[in-house]
Design brief:
α1 packs across α4. The protein has a six-stranded mixed β-sheet with strand order 3-4-5-6-7-11, sandwiched between helices. Helix content is 26%, strand content 42%. The model has no long low-confidence stretch (mean pLDDT 93). The protein has one domain: Roll (Restriction endonuclease-like alpha-beta roll fold). The chain is an alpha/beta fold and 179 residues long. The chain has four helices and eleven strands.
Length: 179
């Protein structure tokens, strides 16, 4: 018998002063049985970093032909394709061919470093792909606060971001590997 996804509800308030974007999003997130709290919270963080009314969660781990997050324009063309983890080069190239812009968020520390050393030169040559590493401590701190129902604030100002969950304030440390 197949295990079912666990549903999480997140009320995400985004105040991105750099983009002048202020919105509250009611997110319903299906966590695949094989997905960790770290990966799920990295998806929420990726949503917050790119928040937009048209941004939506894809099937992610459940489908090879959909990203973790994406934004389509009014014609159905993919404007933004977001992957998490360490996708292979073929998947990144396929996404780059289907979307105007692709962002890969890595979050696994040493594993991400090894992945980037192997694929970095080839990925960096792809014109519409950005790779951003989320500090492991950021993801672990968010994962430690995971609950089935959460309220989260995300604030960006002058290129610095922080997440607030309950009484906990977590600085979001990002490193741009390719832009």
């Amino acid at each position: 018998m197949a295990l079912k996804s666990t549903v999480f509800k997140v009320e995400l308030q985004v105040s991105d002063m750099d983009r002048h974007y202020y919105q509250t999003h009611a997110l319903t997130i299906a966590r695949h049985p094989s997905e960790t709290d770290e990966r799920m919270m990295a998806r929420v963080l990726a949503f917050a970093l790119n928040a937009d009314d048209a941004l939506a969660f894809g099937k992610g781990l459940s489908a090879d032909d959909e990203p973790d997050l994406w934004k389509k324009d009014l014609t159905g063309e993919v404007d933004l394709w977001i992957e998490l983890g360490q996708p292979d080069e073929a998947d990144i190239r396929r996404a780059a061919g289907r979307a105007r812009r692709v962002i890969v968020y890595t979050y696994s520390g040493r594993g991400a470093e090894v992945w980037w050393k192997k694929l970095g030169p080839a990925v960096a040559r792809t014109r519409n792909v950005s790779v951003i590493d989320i500090d492991t401590a950021t993801v672990q701190a968010l994962a430690a606060l995971t609950e089935r129902t959460m309220q989260m604030q995300f604030i960006v100002q002058d290129g610095h971001a922080q997440a607030i969950v309950g009484e906990s304030m977590i600085p979001v440390e990002l490193s741009v590997l390719a832009d």
